[in-house]
Amino acid sequence: MDTLVSIRNLKKTYQRGPEKVEVLHGIDLEIPKGDFVALMGPSGSGKTTLLNLIGGLDNPTSGEIEIENQRIDRMSAGQLSQWRSNNVGFVFQFYNLMPTLNAQKNVELPLLLTKLSASQRKRNAEIALQLVGLAERGKHRPNELSGGQQQRVAIARAIVSDPTLLICDEPTGDLDRQSAEEILALLQSLNRDHGKTIVMVTHDPKAADHARRTIHLDKGTLAANGSGH
């Protein structure tokens, strides 16, 4: 299987007042195309930092991050922003939807950076909403949708540009168990049926069970690689 993400000797240090805190200590990791990886570990283990580095939201202190043969650790802020909009879809714990926009307009937001016409943007948003099972809810605003439905809109927004990589930070952290199961089944389907490579941070072992494999972080190092399913 082709490697999508290749990480070598990745380190991340933050300056907190007078002291330096090393969050990641020389991580080596390969994620094949089409994988679904759950990142687990105690609070402060570095999993969200690692997720943000893979998604190009942050820069490493040292080490290499190569995604589809592109060294994103060498990119300028402008290049990284362009790379993210072309290659990565983000799903967050609290949906991050615009409350004044309906579901369809929320899903269209990433497409405003493209050369697509208004009618093409609308069509692509409708297709993405259909894919997440919300074709009938395009005109509803976030406050007219349940938490699970809002997260589906957020996933539709993440996939509307057809990114190679989906980055999910605690995507079920704010949901009841049934809604969480539905969102995880949707992510599994995007991975299995649509070839999306997914990296998901979660505290929930039941959520991690939906991934193909689980990677455990502990104090900034990889503890063990689970084989997953």
TrEMBL record:
SUPFAM superfamilies: P-loop containing nucleoside triphosphate hydrolases. One of its GO terms (cellular component) is transmembrane transporter complex. GO terms for molecular function: ATP binding; ATP hydrolysis activity; transmembrane transporter activity. SMART domains: AAA. Residues 5-229 form the ABC transporter domain. Gene3D superfamilies: P-loop containing nucleotide triphosphate hydrolases. Keywords: ATP-binding, Nucleotide-binding, Transport. CDD domains: ABC_MJ0796_LolCDE_FtsE. InterPro entries: AAA+_ATPase (IPR003593), ABC_transporter-like_ATP-bd (IPR003439), ABC_transporter-like_CS (IPR017871), ABC_transpr_LolD-like (IPR015854), MacB-like_ATP-bd (IPR017911), P-loop_NTPase (IPR027417). It comes from the Bacteria. Belongs to the ABC transporter superfamily. Macrolide exporter (TC 3.A.1.122) family. This is ABC transporter ATP-binding protein. It comes from Lysobacter silvisoli.
